[in-house]
Write a structure and sequence with these properties.
Layout lengths: L2 E6 L4 H13 L3 E8 L3 H11 L3 E4 L5 H7 L6 E4 L3 H6 L6 E4 L7 H9 L3 E4 L2 H18 L2 E4 L2 H9 L8 E8 L9 H5 L3 H4 L9 H9 L1 H14 L6 E5 L5 E7 L4 E5 L5 H9 L13 H4 L13 H12 L3 H17 L5 H14 L8 H21 L4
Parallel strand pairs: 1-2, 1-5, 2-3, 3-4, 5-6, 6-7, 8-9
Antiparallel strand pairs: 8-10, 10-11
Helix pairs in contact: 1-12, 2-3, 5-6, 6-11, 6-15, 10-15, 11-14, 14-16, 15-16, 15-17, 16-17
The structure holds nicotinamide-adenine-dinucleotide and magnesium ion.
Magnesium ion binds next to α7.
């Protein structure tokens, strides 16, 4: 069957790589819709090149500029945040690639899950905050959720060697980010430039900062709970600076399966699109003899407290991950704007999580309320003491 793809967030790091992958896969993979938030010139260029049936820009303030930039593109043009849900449920679309950053992707991810689409998910935040609602919606509609996040793609591939009930533990690997070997003093004085200098992966700014705090790994622990239906006490984090082993699964008989590959998101993006088949890929192939050695070490939970909080939040469940994620999104935004120091991100997350009274089995409305409260809490706390 031809894949008719809606690519939500086509101008970002995952989005542009997804376009490279689909181009290389050939005519069975059709780009039906493209969306972006503010990079209207790039979106217009993609619209002219890929000629999708629909394009959408979610920032309404840039609508006129976008329409002018579209030139001779003749497809349908949608404007505003609601266009994401409109596209996610279009009957022509069978595959929704979600490459939006943050909780902003939640309504579209939920809509796609409710409408039985195949979801190739890079956008981890909706899974973290609404895992229960999303997996319930997918189970009801028959929607498939396929991971793009490299660690989760690795686990998904390893799990094909056994049953979920036979899993002893899931071992999520982490590069350790730019501050893996830094002292607490160096982390405290880290600049924006230091935090954006990731050693192995090239990604959007928010996830790059999340990798520097190791908040990204904390979010990925919660993401794994929902994607694979395993309790958090069966999930471990292992630091692996070379980013070659993308994650591992240990089974009850002691066998450990691992998935290896070059650190290139094109491989997990492609697997989510071609699953259950494999096609020739565009990522470079591994030369293990040339690499010589791979190294592993435990995470430093004193320097990267966000990871420790993440395990507690995953165990608490309910509204805890909502607060955890929203506090981080708010703090990272302020950090990227130069409003707080790097170390303050983790402190703000801890303060916010501490203040919150966890509620279980929350509705979408309650979730959005809790999300809003956490963002306001962080914004107020950051303006009172930006450098604590
Ligand atoms: P990015 O910042 O490069 O791109 C984000 C995309 O989302 C852009 O197309 C942008 O237009 C869109 N967007 C931003 N705000 C929006 C809003 N409010 N409404 C609608 N669209 C909006 O981000 P990225 O690095 O590509 O990451 C995307 C997602 O994939 C994130 O959830 C990230 O955690 C996850 N992820 C990324 C990588 C990676 O290698 N970049 C790896 C694993 C997982
Ligand atoms: Mg990852």
């Amino acid at each position: 069957m031809n894949k008719k793809i809606a690519l939500l967030g086509s101008t970002g790091s995952i989005g542009t790589n997804t376009l490279r992958v689909t181009e290389s896969l050939g005519s069975h993979y059709e780009i039906y819709a493209l969306t972006a938030h503010s990079k209207y010139e790039l979106l217009a260029e993609q619209a002219r090149k890929f000629n999708p049936a629909v394009v959408a820009l979610t920032d309404p303030q840039l609508a006129d500029k976008f329409k002018n930039a579209l030139g001779d593109y003749t497809g349908e043009v949608l404007i505003g945040p609601d266009s994401l849900c409109t596209i996610a449920k279009m009957p022509e679309v069978n595959t929704v690639v979600t490459a939006i950053v943050g909780a902003a992707g939640l309504p579209a991810v939920l809509t796609a899950a409710e409408h039985g689409k195949t979801l190739a998910i890079a956008n981890k935040e909706p899974l973290v905050i609404a895992g229960e609602l999303l997996t319930e919606a997918a189970a009801k509609s028959g929607a498939k959720i396929l991971p793009i996040d490299s660690e989760h793609s690795a686990i998904f591939q390893c799990l094909q060697a056994g049953k979920t009930s036979e899993v002893q533990k899931i071992i999520l690997t982490a590069s350790g980010g730019p501050f893996r070997t830094a002292s607490p003093e160096q982390i405290k004085n880290a600049t924006l430039e230091d935090a954006l200098d990731h050693p192995t992966w090239s990604m959007g700014p928010k996830i790059t900062v999340d990798s520097a705090t190791m908040m990204n790994k904390a979010l990925e622990v919660i993401e794994a709970v929902w994607l694979f239906g395993v309790p958090v006490d069966k999930i471990e984090v292992l630091v692996h600076p070379e980013s070659i082993v993308h994650s591992l699964v240990e089974f009850v008989d002691g066998s450990v399966m691992a998935q290896l590959g070059a650190p290139d998101m094109c491989t997990p993006i492609q697997y989510a699109l071609t699953y259950p088949d494999r096609e020739t890929g565009i990522a470079s192939h591994l030369d293990l003899a040339k690499l010589g050695q791979l190294s592993f070490e435990p995470p430093n939970l004193d320097n990267f407290r966000a990871l420790k909080v993440g395990f507690d939040v995953a165990a608490a469940g309910g509204s805890a991950p909502v607060v955890f994620n929203a506090a981080n999104e708010a703090a990272v935004k302020i950090f990227l704007e130069g409003g707080i120091k790097f170390a303050r991100i983790t402190e703000l997350i801890e303060e916010c999580v501490d203040k919150h009274q966890v509620r279980q089995h929350i509705s979408l409305e309650e979730l959005l309320e809790v999300d809003k409260w956490a963002r306001e809490f962080v914004s107020n706390a950051a303006s009172k003491s930006p450098t604590l």
